[in-house]
Design a protein that fits this description.
The chain is α/β, with parallel strands linked by helices and 482 residues long. It has 13 helices and 22 strands. Bound molecules: flavin-adenine dinucleotide (FAD) and 1,4-dihydronicotinamide adenine dinucleotide (NAI).
Length: 482
Protein backbone atom coordinates (compact mmCIF):
# COMPACT_ATOMS: atom_id res chain seq x y z
CA UNK A 1 0.00 0.00 0.00
CA UNK A 2 1.59 3.36 -1.04
CA UNK A 3 2.18 5.96 1.68
CA UNK A 4 -0.67 8.51 1.79
CA UNK A 5 -0.21 12.30 1.92
CA UNK A 6 -2.53 15.26 1.66
CA UNK A 7 0.04 17.22 -0.31
CA UNK A 8 3.06 16.08 -2.33
CA UNK A 9 5.44 18.73 -3.63
CA UNK A 10 7.81 17.82 -6.46
CA UNK A 11 10.95 19.97 -6.22
CA UNK A 12 12.57 21.61 -3.20
CA UNK A 13 13.69 24.92 -4.72
CA UNK A 14 12.40 28.19 -3.23
CA UNK A 15 9.00 27.41 -4.73
CA UNK A 16 8.69 23.82 -3.56
CA UNK A 17 10.24 23.93 -0.11
CA UNK A 18 8.24 27.02 0.86
CA UNK A 19 5.02 25.47 -0.49
CA UNK A 20 5.72 22.31 1.56
CA UNK A 21 6.36 24.26 4.78
CA UNK A 22 3.22 26.39 4.32
CA UNK A 23 1.11 23.29 3.54
CA UNK A 24 2.40 21.60 6.71
CA UNK A 25 1.72 24.77 8.74
CA UNK A 26 -1.86 24.62 7.50
CA UNK A 27 -2.20 21.12 8.93
CA UNK A 28 -1.70 18.96 5.82
CA UNK A 29 0.42 15.82 5.89
CA UNK A 30 3.08 16.87 3.39
CA UNK A 31 5.98 15.30 1.53
CA UNK A 32 8.58 17.11 -0.56
CA UNK A 33 10.36 15.09 -3.24
CA UNK A 34 13.62 16.41 -4.65
CA UNK A 35 16.25 14.99 -6.95
CA UNK A 36 19.12 17.51 -6.51
CA UNK A 37 22.59 16.18 -5.77
CA UNK A 38 25.48 18.52 -4.99
CA UNK A 39 29.04 18.29 -6.33
CA UNK A 40 29.80 15.64 -3.69
CA UNK A 41 26.88 13.51 -4.94
CA UNK A 42 24.84 14.21 -1.78
CA UNK A 43 21.16 15.25 -1.75
CA UNK A 44 20.96 19.01 -1.25
CA UNK A 45 17.67 20.83 -0.76
CA UNK A 46 17.06 24.36 -2.07
CA UNK A 47 17.04 23.82 -5.85
CA UNK A 48 18.79 26.13 -8.27
CA UNK A 49 18.46 29.17 -6.02
CA UNK A 50 20.39 27.84 -3.04
CA UNK A 51 22.74 25.40 -4.77
CA UNK A 52 23.85 27.15 -7.96
CA UNK A 53 21.86 30.38 -8.27
CA UNK A 54 20.86 33.33 -6.10
CA UNK A 55 22.89 32.55 -3.00
CA UNK A 56 26.30 31.42 -4.34
CA UNK A 57 26.25 34.15 -7.01
CA UNK A 58 25.59 36.82 -4.39
CA UNK A 59 28.38 35.43 -2.18
CA UNK A 60 30.86 35.78 -5.06
CA UNK A 61 29.50 39.19 -6.04
CA UNK A 62 30.18 40.40 -2.49
CA UNK A 63 33.68 38.90 -2.40
CA UNK A 64 34.64 40.35 -5.75
CA UNK A 65 33.16 43.73 -4.80
CA UNK A 66 35.35 43.75 -1.68
CA UNK A 67 38.40 42.93 -3.78
CA UNK A 68 37.52 45.82 -6.11
CA UNK A 69 37.08 48.14 -3.11
CA UNK A 70 40.49 47.26 -1.69
CA UNK A 71 42.17 47.77 -5.06
CA UNK A 72 40.38 50.85 -6.33
CA UNK A 73 38.03 52.44 -3.83
CA UNK A 74 39.62 52.47 -0.37
CA UNK A 75 42.27 54.95 -1.43
CA UNK A 76 39.62 57.69 -1.76
CA UNK A 77 38.75 57.12 1.91
CA UNK A 78 42.38 57.60 2.92
CA UNK A 79 42.91 53.88 3.44
CA UNK A 80 45.88 52.45 1.61
CA UNK A 81 47.79 49.21 1.53
CA UNK A 82 51.41 49.40 2.58
CA UNK A 83 53.51 48.79 -0.51
CA UNK A 84 50.59 49.36 -2.91
CA UNK A 85 48.04 47.14 -4.59
CA UNK A 86 50.62 44.54 -5.66
CA UNK A 87 50.53 43.41 -2.02
CA UNK A 88 46.84 42.55 -2.20
CA UNK A 89 46.54 38.79 -2.54
CA UNK A 90 43.49 37.02 -3.93
CA UNK A 91 42.81 33.52 -2.60
CA UNK A 92 40.24 32.07 -5.03
CA UNK A 93 39.90 28.66 -3.30
CA UNK A 94 39.16 30.45 0.00
CA UNK A 95 36.61 32.67 -1.72
CA UNK A 96 34.93 29.59 -3.22
CA UNK A 97 35.04 27.76 0.13
CA UNK A 98 33.27 30.72 1.78
CA UNK A 99 30.58 30.59 -0.91
CA UNK A 100 30.21 26.80 -0.50
CA UNK A 101 29.88 27.17 3.27
CA UNK A 102 27.09 29.72 2.87
CA UNK A 103 25.31 27.35 0.46
CA UNK A 104 25.76 24.45 2.89
CA UNK A 105 24.35 26.44 5.79
CA UNK A 106 21.19 27.21 3.87
CA UNK A 107 20.66 23.81 2.23
CA UNK A 108 21.07 21.96 5.54
CA UNK A 109 18.87 24.65 7.10
CA UNK A 110 15.99 23.46 4.91
CA UNK A 111 16.38 19.94 6.32
CA UNK A 112 15.92 21.47 9.78
CA UNK A 113 12.95 23.55 8.65
CA UNK A 114 11.34 20.40 7.24
CA UNK A 115 11.87 18.58 10.55
CA UNK A 116 10.51 21.49 12.55
CA UNK A 117 7.41 21.74 10.36
CA UNK A 118 6.98 17.95 10.04
CA UNK A 119 7.44 17.88 6.27
CA UNK A 120 8.51 14.43 5.07
CA UNK A 121 11.42 14.57 2.65
CA UNK A 122 12.15 12.02 -0.08
CA UNK A 123 15.17 12.04 -2.35
CA UNK A 124 14.67 10.96 -5.96
CA UNK A 125 12.93 11.85 -9.20
CA UNK A 126 9.21 12.33 -8.73
CA UNK A 127 7.02 11.24 -11.62
CA UNK A 128 3.32 10.84 -12.18
CA UNK A 129 2.07 7.22 -12.25
CA UNK A 130 -1.67 7.89 -12.59
CA UNK A 131 -4.79 9.52 -11.23
CA UNK A 132 -6.55 8.33 -8.06
CA UNK A 133 -10.28 7.57 -8.38
CA UNK A 134 -11.36 10.02 -5.66
CA UNK A 135 -9.03 12.87 -6.86
CA UNK A 136 -5.28 13.27 -6.51
CA UNK A 137 -2.45 11.25 -7.98
CA UNK A 138 -0.16 8.31 -7.49
CA UNK A 139 3.49 9.29 -7.78
CA UNK A 140 6.62 7.21 -8.15
CA UNK A 141 9.81 8.39 -6.51
CA UNK A 142 12.83 6.96 -8.28
CA UNK A 143 15.72 7.08 -5.82
CA UNK A 144 19.16 5.49 -5.52
CA UNK A 145 17.75 2.59 -3.50
CA UNK A 146 14.79 1.86 -5.79
CA UNK A 147 11.31 3.14 -6.58
CA UNK A 148 8.66 4.00 -4.00
CA UNK A 149 5.03 4.83 -4.65
CA UNK A 150 3.01 7.44 -2.81
CA UNK A 151 -0.56 8.71 -3.10
CA UNK A 152 -1.35 12.39 -2.64
CA UNK A 153 -4.66 14.25 -2.65
CA UNK A 154 -2.89 17.34 -4.05
CA UNK A 155 0.35 17.61 -6.02
CA UNK A 156 2.35 20.82 -6.41
CA UNK A 157 4.81 20.76 -9.31
CA UNK A 158 7.83 22.97 -8.51
CA UNK A 159 10.45 21.46 -10.79
CA UNK A 160 12.07 24.76 -11.77
CA UNK A 161 14.16 25.43 -14.82
CA UNK A 162 17.41 24.41 -16.49
CA UNK A 163 19.91 26.43 -18.52
CA UNK A 164 19.37 26.78 -22.25
CA UNK A 165 22.31 26.06 -24.51
CA UNK A 166 23.16 26.72 -28.15
CA UNK A 167 22.15 23.91 -30.51
CA UNK A 168 24.85 21.24 -30.69
CA UNK A 169 26.98 22.86 -27.98
CA UNK A 170 27.89 20.68 -25.05
CA UNK A 171 28.50 22.24 -21.69
CA UNK A 172 31.41 20.54 -19.89
CA UNK A 173 31.47 23.01 -16.99
CA UNK A 174 35.22 23.14 -17.33
CA UNK A 175 35.95 25.25 -20.41
CA UNK A 176 32.38 25.85 -21.56
CA UNK A 177 30.16 26.53 -18.58
CA UNK A 178 26.62 27.30 -17.57
CA UNK A 179 25.87 28.90 -14.19
CA UNK A 180 27.16 25.81 -12.36
CA UNK A 181 30.69 26.02 -13.74
CA UNK A 182 30.69 29.84 -13.73
CA UNK A 183 30.32 29.79 -9.94
CA UNK A 184 33.35 27.56 -9.40
CA UNK A 185 36.28 28.52 -11.66
CA UNK A 186 39.30 27.29 -9.68
CA UNK A 187 41.32 30.34 -10.76
CA UNK A 188 40.63 33.68 -12.44
CA UNK A 189 40.55 33.12 -16.21
CA UNK A 190 42.69 35.65 -18.11
CA UNK A 191 40.18 35.93 -20.96
CA UNK A 192 36.55 35.16 -20.17
CA UNK A 193 33.92 34.99 -22.90
CA UNK A 194 30.21 35.22 -22.06
CA UNK A 195 27.38 34.50 -24.50
CA UNK A 196 24.27 36.46 -23.46
CA UNK A 197 24.22 39.86 -21.74
CA UNK A 198 21.28 38.97 -19.50
CA UNK A 199 21.14 38.73 -15.74
CA UNK A 200 23.57 35.82 -15.33
CA UNK A 201 26.01 37.12 -17.95
CA UNK A 202 26.17 40.53 -16.27
CA UNK A 203 26.37 39.23 -12.69
CA UNK A 204 28.94 36.52 -13.37
CA UNK A 205 30.81 38.74 -15.85
CA UNK A 206 31.06 41.37 -13.08
CA UNK A 207 32.40 38.84 -10.57
CA UNK A 208 35.25 37.62 -12.76
CA UNK A 209 36.00 41.07 -14.23
CA UNK A 210 36.47 42.50 -10.74
CA UNK A 211 38.75 39.60 -9.88
CA UNK A 212 40.94 40.37 -12.89
CA UNK A 213 39.54 38.69 -16.04
CA UNK A 214 39.25 40.47 -19.34
CA UNK A 215 35.54 39.90 -20.03
CA UNK A 216 33.86 39.97 -23.45
CA UNK A 217 30.08 39.54 -23.58
CA UNK A 218 28.46 38.59 -26.89
CA UNK A 219 24.80 39.56 -26.99
CA UNK A 220 22.53 38.66 -29.90
CA UNK A 221 20.02 41.48 -29.44
CA UNK A 222 20.83 44.89 -30.92
CA UNK A 223 19.68 46.63 -27.73
CA UNK A 224 21.16 46.23 -24.25
CA UNK A 225 18.98 45.01 -21.34
CA UNK A 226 15.77 45.41 -23.31
CA UNK A 227 13.61 44.39 -20.32
CA UNK A 228 14.73 47.43 -18.29
CA UNK A 229 13.50 50.98 -18.56
CA UNK A 230 15.53 52.45 -21.40
CA UNK A 231 17.10 55.23 -19.28
CA UNK A 232 18.31 52.56 -16.89
CA UNK A 233 19.76 50.37 -19.66
CA UNK A 234 21.61 53.37 -21.13
CA UNK A 235 23.11 54.25 -17.75
CA UNK A 236 23.90 50.59 -17.05
CA UNK A 237 25.69 50.24 -20.40
CA UNK A 238 27.74 53.37 -19.62
CA UNK A 239 28.70 52.09 -16.16
CA UNK A 240 29.40 48.49 -17.18
CA UNK A 241 31.49 49.32 -20.24
CA UNK A 242 33.12 52.30 -18.47
CA UNK A 243 34.17 52.01 -14.81
CA UNK A 244 33.47 48.26 -14.56
CA UNK A 245 35.37 47.46 -17.75
CA UNK A 246 33.11 44.85 -19.36
CA UNK A 247 33.35 44.61 -23.14
CA UNK A 248 29.72 44.23 -24.26
CA UNK A 249 29.08 43.54 -27.95
CA UNK A 250 25.44 43.85 -28.93
CA UNK A 251 24.10 42.40 -32.18
CA UNK A 252 26.70 39.59 -32.14
CA UNK A 253 25.73 36.31 -33.84
CA UNK A 254 27.71 33.35 -32.54
CA UNK A 255 28.48 30.89 -35.33
CA UNK A 256 30.85 28.33 -33.82
CA UNK A 257 32.19 27.45 -30.40
CA UNK A 258 35.03 24.98 -30.29
CA UNK A 259 37.11 23.81 -27.36
CA UNK A 260 40.71 23.37 -28.51
CA UNK A 261 43.11 22.09 -25.85
CA UNK A 262 42.86 24.44 -22.92
CA UNK A 263 41.07 27.27 -24.73
CA UNK A 264 37.73 27.92 -26.42
CA UNK A 265 37.60 29.35 -29.92
CA UNK A 266 34.48 31.33 -30.81
CA UNK A 267 33.58 32.66 -34.21
CA UNK A 268 30.89 35.30 -34.39
CA UNK A 269 29.53 37.97 -36.68
CA UNK A 270 29.60 41.46 -35.20
CA UNK A 271 26.79 43.96 -35.70
CA UNK A 272 28.53 45.41 -38.78
CA UNK A 273 28.49 41.94 -40.37
CA UNK A 274 32.22 41.19 -39.94
CA UNK A 275 33.29 37.64 -39.09
CA UNK A 276 35.41 37.76 -35.92
CA UNK A 277 37.46 34.98 -34.32
CA UNK A 278 38.05 35.17 -30.58
CA UNK A 279 39.83 32.96 -28.06
CA UNK A 280 38.89 32.60 -24.41
CA UNK A 281 40.27 30.67 -21.45
CA UNK A 282 36.71 30.00 -20.28
CA UNK A 283 33.29 30.59 -21.75
CA UNK A 284 29.99 31.11 -19.93
CA UNK A 285 26.81 30.37 -21.86
CA UNK A 286 23.96 32.34 -20.27
CA UNK A 287 21.26 32.68 -22.91
CA UNK A 288 18.24 32.05 -20.71
CA UNK A 289 16.60 29.14 -18.92
CA UNK A 290 13.85 26.72 -19.91
CA UNK A 291 11.16 25.18 -17.72
CA UNK A 292 12.06 21.73 -16.45
CA UNK A 293 9.46 18.98 -16.87
CA UNK A 294 11.91 16.20 -17.75
CA UNK A 295 11.19 13.09 -15.72
CA UNK A 296 7.69 14.19 -14.61
CA UNK A 297 5.84 11.83 -16.97
CA UNK A 298 3.00 14.34 -17.53
CA UNK A 299 1.15 12.05 -19.97
CA UNK A 300 0.29 9.65 -17.14
CA UNK A 301 -2.25 12.19 -15.86
CA UNK A 302 -2.92 14.14 -19.08
CA UNK A 303 -1.11 17.24 -17.78
CA UNK A 304 -0.95 20.03 -20.35
CA UNK A 305 2.47 21.48 -21.19
CA UNK A 306 2.49 24.49 -23.53
CA UNK A 307 4.53 24.79 -26.73
CA UNK A 308 7.38 26.56 -24.88
CA UNK A 309 7.62 23.77 -22.31
CA UNK A 310 5.84 25.50 -19.39
CA UNK A 311 3.22 23.66 -17.36
CA UNK A 312 -0.02 25.44 -18.26
CA UNK A 313 -1.67 27.15 -15.28
CA UNK A 314 -4.35 29.74 -14.61
CA UNK A 315 -3.87 32.84 -12.46
CA UNK A 316 -4.11 30.72 -9.28
CA UNK A 317 -1.54 28.14 -10.45
CA UNK A 318 -4.15 25.46 -11.17
CA UNK A 319 -3.20 23.08 -14.00
CA UNK A 320 -5.76 21.40 -16.28
CA UNK A 321 -5.78 18.39 -13.90
CA UNK A 322 -7.91 18.80 -10.75
CA UNK A 323 -5.78 18.93 -7.56
CA UNK A 324 -2.55 19.32 -9.53
CA UNK A 325 -0.88 22.72 -9.18
CA UNK A 326 2.33 24.20 -10.58
CA UNK A 327 4.48 27.11 -9.39
CA UNK A 328 7.78 28.90 -9.95
CA UNK A 329 10.12 28.73 -12.94
CA UNK A 330 8.15 25.85 -14.49
CA UNK A 331 5.14 28.14 -15.10
CA UNK A 332 4.61 31.52 -16.81
CA UNK A 333 5.90 34.75 -15.26
CA UNK A 334 9.35 35.87 -14.23
CA UNK A 335 11.91 33.22 -13.28
CA UNK A 336 12.66 34.62 -9.84
CA UNK A 337 13.06 32.93 -6.47
CA UNK A 338 10.69 35.26 -4.60
CA UNK A 339 7.99 34.80 -7.24
CA UNK A 340 8.32 31.01 -6.86
CA UNK A 341 8.08 31.17 -3.06
CA UNK A 342 5.04 33.45 -3.05
CA UNK A 343 3.27 31.16 -5.52
CA UNK A 344 4.13 28.26 -3.18
CA UNK A 345 2.46 30.01 -0.26
CA UNK A 346 -0.55 31.02 -2.38
CA UNK A 347 -1.12 27.45 -3.63
CA UNK A 348 -0.84 25.91 -0.14
CA UNK A 349 -3.40 28.47 1.05
CA UNK A 350 -5.68 27.79 -1.93
CA UNK A 351 -5.59 24.06 -1.10
CA UNK A 352 -6.70 25.03 2.41
CA UNK A 353 -9.66 26.87 0.91
CA UNK A 354 -8.16 30.31 1.43
CA UNK A 355 -7.71 32.88 -1.31
CA UNK A 356 -4.06 32.43 -2.30
CA UNK A 357 -3.00 34.96 -4.91
CA UNK A 358 0.24 36.51 -6.25
CA UNK A 359 0.20 39.87 -7.97
CA UNK A 360 2.64 39.38 -10.85
CA UNK A 361 2.41 43.11 -11.66
CA UNK A 362 4.35 44.05 -8.55
CA UNK A 363 7.08 41.41 -8.55
CA UNK A 364 10.37 43.28 -8.13
CA UNK A 365 13.40 42.52 -10.32
CA UNK A 366 16.96 43.06 -9.15
CA UNK A 367 20.23 42.69 -11.04
CA UNK A 368 23.06 42.54 -8.52
CA UNK A 369 25.69 44.34 -10.55
CA UNK A 370 27.55 47.41 -9.41
CA UNK A 371 25.66 49.68 -9.57
CA UNK A 372 22.67 47.50 -8.78
CA UNK A 373 19.55 47.69 -10.93
CA UNK A 374 16.06 47.21 -9.52
CA UNK A 375 12.60 47.85 -10.81
CA UNK A 376 8.93 47.18 -10.30
CA UNK A 377 6.00 47.84 -12.58
CA UNK A 378 6.02 49.29 -16.06
CA UNK A 379 8.82 50.91 -18.03
CA UNK A 380 8.56 54.27 -19.75
CA UNK A 381 8.79 52.64 -23.20
CA UNK A 382 5.93 50.29 -22.21
CA UNK A 383 3.73 53.21 -21.22
CA UNK A 384 4.52 55.13 -24.40
CA UNK A 385 3.72 52.10 -26.51
CA UNK A 386 0.44 51.52 -24.67
CA UNK A 387 -0.49 55.19 -25.08
CA UNK A 388 -0.76 55.73 -21.31
CA UNK A 389 -0.59 59.36 -20.21
CA UNK A 390 2.08 59.48 -17.48
CA UNK A 391 4.35 61.85 -15.56
CA UNK A 392 7.91 61.07 -14.58
CA UNK A 393 10.29 62.18 -11.81
CA UNK A 394 13.97 61.35 -11.57
CA UNK A 395 16.68 62.03 -9.01
CA UNK A 396 20.40 61.25 -9.43
CA UNK A 397 22.44 59.69 -6.63
CA UNK A 398 25.18 62.24 -7.22
CA UNK A 399 22.89 64.73 -5.41
CA UNK A 400 22.35 62.38 -2.45
CA UNK A 401 24.45 63.08 0.64
CA UNK A 402 24.40 59.43 1.69
CA UNK A 403 25.50 58.22 -1.76
CA UNK A 404 28.37 60.74 -1.66
CA UNK A 405 29.41 59.50 1.77
CA UNK A 406 29.35 55.94 0.44
CA UNK A 407 31.34 56.97 -2.62
CA UNK A 408 28.66 55.36 -4.81
CA UNK A 409 27.15 58.20 -6.82
CA UNK A 410 26.36 56.54 -10.15
CA UNK A 411 22.74 56.14 -11.21
CA UNK A 412 19.32 57.48 -10.26
CA UNK A 413 15.81 56.74 -9.00
CA UNK A 414 12.96 57.21 -11.42
CA UNK A 415 9.24 57.16 -10.73
CA UNK A 416 6.44 56.94 -13.31
CA UNK A 417 2.90 57.88 -12.32
CA UNK A 418 -0.44 58.10 -14.11
CA UNK A 419 -0.95 61.67 -15.32
CA UNK A 420 -4.59 61.76 -14.18
CA UNK A 421 -4.79 59.63 -11.06
CA UNK A 422 -1.11 60.00 -9.97
CA UNK A 423 -1.07 56.27 -9.15
CA UNK A 424 2.49 54.92 -9.31
CA UNK A 425 2.94 52.78 -12.43
CA UNK A 426 6.63 51.93 -12.20
CA UNK A 427 9.81 52.62 -10.26
CA UNK A 428 13.26 52.11 -11.76
CA UNK A 429 16.49 52.39 -9.80
CA UNK A 430 20.10 52.05 -10.80
CA UNK A 431 22.47 52.80 -7.98
CA UNK A 432 23.73 51.75 -4.54
CA UNK A 433 21.48 49.29 -2.65
CA UNK A 434 18.80 49.46 -5.35
CA UNK A 435 17.85 45.93 -4.19
CA UNK A 436 16.84 47.30 -0.79
CA UNK A 437 15.35 50.60 -1.99
CA UNK A 438 12.92 48.89 -4.36
CA UNK A 439 11.05 47.41 -1.36
CA UNK A 440 9.44 50.76 -0.59
CA UNK A 441 8.24 51.07 -4.18
CA UNK A 442 6.78 47.54 -4.13
CA UNK A 443 4.83 48.27 -0.95
CA UNK A 444 3.63 51.58 -2.37
CA UNK A 445 2.43 49.99 -5.60
CA UNK A 446 0.81 47.04 -3.83
CA UNK A 447 -1.19 49.55 -1.75
CA UNK A 448 -2.09 51.55 -4.87
CA UNK A 449 -0.14 54.60 -3.68
CA UNK A 450 0.27 57.81 -5.64
CA UNK A 451 3.55 59.68 -6.16
CA UNK A 452 2.05 62.34 -3.86
CA UNK A 453 1.81 59.71 -1.07
CA UNK A 454 5.54 59.01 -1.28
CA UNK A 455 6.29 62.72 -1.61
CA UNK A 456 4.46 63.38 1.70
CA UNK A 457 6.14 60.55 3.66
CA UNK A 458 9.07 61.52 5.89
CA UNK A 459 12.27 59.79 4.74
CA UNK A 460 15.32 59.55 7.02
CA UNK A 461 18.22 61.89 6.36
CA UNK A 462 20.81 61.16 5.18
CA UNK A 463 19.62 57.98 3.52
CA UNK A 464 19.48 56.60 0.00
CA UNK A 465 15.69 56.42 0.30
CA UNK A 466 15.65 60.21 0.00
CA UNK A 467 16.42 59.71 -3.70
CA UNK A 468 13.09 57.87 -4.10
CA UNK A 469 11.37 60.65 -2.14
CA UNK A 470 12.92 63.25 -4.45
CA UNK A 471 11.93 61.23 -7.55
CA UNK A 472 8.34 61.27 -6.24
CA UNK A 473 8.54 65.05 -5.74
CA UNK A 474 9.97 65.22 -9.26
CA UNK A 475 6.78 63.72 -10.71
CA UNK A 476 5.08 66.98 -9.67
CA UNK A 477 8.11 69.04 -10.78
CA UNK A 478 8.96 70.04 -7.21
CA UNK A 479 12.25 68.32 -6.50
CA UNK A 480 13.92 70.11 -3.58
CA UNK A 481 17.58 69.18 -3.64
CA UNK A 482 18.51 69.38 -7.29
P1 LIG B 1 14.34 25.48 -8.74
O1 LIG B 1 15.05 26.33 -7.78
O2 LIG B 1 14.96 25.27 -10.07
O3 LIG B 1 14.12 24.08 -8.01
C1 LIG B 1 13.57 22.99 -8.66
C2 LIG B 1 13.96 21.73 -7.91
O4 LIG B 1 13.18 20.65 -8.40
C3 LIG B 1 15.42 21.32 -8.09
O5 LIG B 1 15.97 20.97 -6.86
C4 LIG B 1 15.35 20.12 -9.02
O6 LIG B 1 16.39 19.19 -8.80
C5 LIG B 1 14.01 19.52 -8.58
N1 LIG B 1 13.38 18.67 -9.59
C6 LIG B 1 13.16 18.90 -10.89
N2 LIG B 1 12.47 17.89 -11.46
C7 LIG B 1 12.25 17.00 -10.47
C8 LIG B 1 11.57 15.75 -10.40
N3 LIG B 1 10.94 15.24 -11.46
N4 LIG B 1 11.56 15.09 -9.22
C9 LIG B 1 12.16 15.60 -8.13
N5 LIG B 1 12.80 16.78 -8.13
C10 LIG B 1 12.83 17.47 -9.28
N6 LIG B 1 16.35 34.63 -8.65
C11 LIG B 1 16.18 35.66 -7.81
O7 LIG B 1 15.03 35.97 -7.46
N7 LIG B 1 17.24 36.39 -7.32
C12 LIG B 1 18.50 36.10 -7.68
O8 LIG B 1 19.44 36.77 -7.21
C13 LIG B 1 18.73 35.03 -8.56
N8 LIG B 1 19.98 34.70 -8.92
C14 LIG B 1 20.17 33.64 -9.75
C15 LIG B 1 21.48 33.34 -10.14
C16 LIG B 1 21.72 32.29 -10.99
C17 LIG B 1 23.13 31.97 -11.39
C18 LIG B 1 20.62 31.50 -11.46
C19 LIG B 1 20.86 30.32 -12.35
C20 LIG B 1 19.33 31.79 -11.09
C21 LIG B 1 19.10 32.88 -10.24
N9 LIG B 1 17.80 33.24 -9.87
C22 LIG B 1 17.61 34.30 -9.03
C23 LIG B 1 16.62 32.49 -10.33
C24 LIG B 1 16.18 31.51 -9.25
O9 LIG B 1 17.25 30.66 -8.94
C25 LIG B 1 14.98 30.72 -9.74
O10 LIG B 1 13.96 31.61 -10.15
C26 LIG B 1 14.44 29.84 -8.63
O11 LIG B 1 15.42 28.94 -8.18
C27 LIG B 1 13.22 29.05 -9.11
O12 LIG B 1 12.73 28.32 -8.05
P2 LIG B 1 11.87 26.97 -8.29
O13 LIG B 1 11.55 26.47 -6.94
O14 LIG B 1 10.78 27.27 -9.23
O15 LIG B 1 12.87 25.98 -9.04
P1 LIG C 1 18.36 36.15 -19.54
O1 LIG C 1 17.08 35.85 -20.19
O2 LIG C 1 18.40 37.13 -18.43
O3 LIG C 1 19.39 36.68 -20.63
C1 LIG C 1 19.75 35.92 -21.74
C2 LIG C 1 20.42 36.84 -22.73
O4 LIG C 1 21.01 36.05 -23.75
C3 LIG C 1 19.43 37.79 -23.42
O5 LIG C 1 19.93 39.10 -23.40
C4 LIG C 1 19.31 37.21 -24.82
O6 LIG C 1 19.05 38.18 -25.79
C5 LIG C 1 20.70 36.62 -25.00
N1 LIG C 1 20.79 35.56 -26.00
C6 LIG C 1 19.88 34.59 -26.25
N2 LIG C 1 20.35 33.78 -27.22
C7 LIG C 1 21.57 34.25 -27.57
C8 LIG C 1 22.56 33.83 -28.50
N3 LIG C 1 22.38 32.77 -29.27
N4 LIG C 1 23.70 34.56 -28.59
C9 LIG C 1 23.90 35.65 -27.82
N5 LIG C 1 22.99 36.08 -26.92
C10 LIG C 1 21.85 35.38 -26.79
O7 LIG C 1 18.95 34.73 -19.12
P2 LIG C 1 20.13 34.32 -18.13
O8 LIG C 1 21.09 35.43 -17.94
O9 LIG C 1 20.61 33.02 -18.64
O10 LIG C 1 19.38 34.10 -16.78
C11 LIG C 1 18.26 33.21 -16.73
C12 LIG C 1 17.25 33.68 -15.75
O11 LIG C 1 17.69 33.40 -14.43
C13 LIG C 1 16.98 35.17 -15.74
O12 LIG C 1 16.11 35.55 -16.78
C14 LIG C 1 16.36 35.36 -14.41
O13 LIG C 1 15.02 34.99 -14.48
C15 LIG C 1 17.13 34.37 -13.56
N6 LIG C 1 18.20 35.08 -12.85
C16 LIG C 1 17.85 36.06 -11.98
C17 LIG C 1 18.81 36.77 -11.31
C18 LIG C 1 18.40 37.86 -10.41
O14 LIG C 1 17.23 37.94 -10.08
N7 LIG C 1 19.30 38.72 -9.97
C19 LIG C 1 20.23 36.47 -11.46
C20 LIG C 1 20.49 35.44 -12.42
C21 LIG C 1 19.49 34.76 -13.05
Amino acid sequence: MPQQFDVAVIGAGPGGYVAAIRAAQLGFSTVCIDAWKNAKGKPSLGGTCLNVGCIPSKALLESSENFERVLHKFDDHGISIKGGEKNVVLDVPKMLARKDKIVDTFTTGITLLFKKNKVASMHGIGRFAGLLPGGGCTLEVVGDAGTERIDAKHVIIATGSVPRSLPGLSIDNRLICDNVGALSFPEVPRRLGVIGAGVIGLEMGSVWRRLGSEVTILEAMPTFLAACDEHVSKEAYRQFTGPLGLKILNGAKVHTVEPVGSIVKVEYEDKAGNRVRAEFDRLIVSIGRTPNTAGLNPDAIGLRIDTRGYVEVDERCRTNVPNVWAIGDVVRGPMLAHKSSEEGVAVAESIAGQHGHVNLDTVPWVIYTSPEIAWVGRTEQDLKQAGVDYRSGQFPFIASGRARALGETAGFCKMLADAKTDRILGVHIIGPFASELIGEAVVAMEFGASSEDIARIVHAHPSLSEALHEAALGVDKRTLNL
